[in-house]
Amino acid sequence: MPVEPTSPPTESKSADRPVLSPKPRVLSGIQPTGIGFHLGNYLGAVRNWVAMQDDFDAFYFVPDMHAITVPHDPATLRRRTRESIAELMALGLDPARCTLFVQSHVPEHAELAWVLGCITAYGEASRMTQFKDKAARSELGAATVGLFNYPVLQAADILLYQADQVPVGDDQRQHLELTRDLAKRFNSRFGGTFTVPAPYIPARSARIADLQDPSRKMSKSRPPAGTVYIQDDPKALAKKVRSAVTDTGREVRAAEEKPGISNLLNILSTLTGRGIVDLEATYADSGYGAFKADVAAALVEFVAPIQQRYRDILADEAGLDAVLVAGAAKATAVAADTMRRVRAGVGFLPLGSRSG
Ligand code: ATP
Ligand code: LTN
Fold it and tell me: CB within 6 Å of ligand 1 — which residues?
């Protein structure tokens, strides 16, 4: 699948980092929240990451430290973090072709977040819309300083690895802007240290809507009836698609006034590689029933091999442990190098040194 950046990496200063790989570096992450990844996460994000593994020096990670910015259960977080790595592998991330790791295994993330927090203005952090939304949704007074710092930790994730490009959905644009501002500010105050990253929002990234409310995006934090999980069994998939909200007509056609049918067409088109016009012609006389049955069948066919791989990867506990250890080592090598330069830049006294 072609993935085209919306902005060329002209401002990256990749030349001033030790270049081990001539490929541009990308980095992205997906939180281990919810009960698993859904079709929107795959079609809108992970599918692009998979496609980028060979042409980029790719770093992908599970931000478990971000997941504790809202109330959570420790045992669930531990299990979901492991499952998330296994699920990313089942979806096509290959630890031999990318650096795949867990954020908390690299403590430099927290260290850099502290330093960046000290060059972030209170006002600019207060303007982050995701924080404002989440704070408004949490009970009065329940929003934490950690939630407030979420975008600063995200900036640290990106800058630690000197990423040239960050493939994310549109909802993350503002966090990327903050990251760029912090990189430039640090570089001008303390000397060139960070690559200034560009957002990489694929030109044709699929935005999948909730099956029960097609005006909203499918999301881990919405009720499961409208969310197609990659781990859903065939019965659940068929039921979710059959009861997907559509309009009262019977024409299978993509149109603004038909958001439910348009969403299903979009799903079928991305899964099968067939164009929307072609699909509209196929289902011109068939009504919603036959169309929905085919969408469900395509989904079942799509998830079956992924689910099998997922079970195999999770069952091989030692293999998964080895992936985590190797990923943490590869990530640490880069992160530790950046942090050495950050510490020197801000003026932390090196142990054993007597002069500035
Ligand atoms: P939450 O409900 O916890 O916010 P989420 O399901 O919205 O979770 P995120 O973890 O915020 O998912 O996003 C992970 C990645 O998946 C991001 O790059 C995001 O842009 C993408 N993504 C999430 N939902 C969709 C969707 N419905 N369609 C396309 N891409 C999506
Ligand atoms: N906030 C992101 C997850 C995330 C991320 C990152 C993405 C945390 N750190 C660094 C890209 C780069 C999200 O909710 N999708």
Answer: 30-31, 33-34, 40-41, 44-45, 168-169, 171, 206-208, 217-221
**Sign of the CA dihedral with 148 first, then 159, 49, and 318 last:** negative
Q: Is the pLDDT of residue 11 over 60?
A: no
CA dihedral over 223, 224, 227, 231, signed as positive or negative: positive
Give the span between the Cα atoms of 143 and 69, in whole angstroms.
8
Q: Can you give the pLDDT at residue 9?
A: 40
Q: What is the mean pLDDT of the chain?
A: 91
CA Rg, the chain, in Å? 22
Q: How far is the CA of 183 from the centre of ligand 1 (A)?
A: 25
How does DSSP classify residue 43? Answer: I
- What backbone phi and psi angles, to 5 degrees, belong to 201? -105, 105
Residue partners of 78: CB distance under 8 A and separation at least 6 = none
User: What per-residue confidence (pLDDT) applies to 140?
Assistant: 59
Question: β-pairing, 99-102 with 198-200?
Answer: unpaired
Say yes or no: CB of residue 44 within 6 Å of ligand 2: no
Instruction: Tell me 10's DSSP state.
Output: T
Predicted confidence at residue 21, as pLDDT, reads 61
Q: Kindly write down the DSSP assignment for every residue of 179-209, as one continuous string.
A: HHHHHHHHHHHH-S-----EEE--TT---PB
pLDDT by residue (tens digit) across 182-220?
A: 999 999 999 999 999 998 877 666 789 999 999 999 998
Cα 314 from Cα 320, distance rounded (Å): 7
Is 228 in contact with 299 (CB distance < 8 Å)? yes
- Determine the 3-state secondary structure of 263 from DSSP: helix
Q: What is the pLDDT of residue 2?
A: 40
Q: Which of 174, 146, 177 is nearest to 63 (CA)?
A: 146
Is residue 86 classed as helix, strand or coil in its secondary structure?
helix
The per-residue pLDDT for range 105-131, each reduced to its tens digit, is 999 999 999 999 999 999 999 999 999
Integer Cα distance of 99 and 236 in angstroms:
33
Query: Taking the mean position of all CA atoms in its chain, how far away is CA 59?
Result: 11
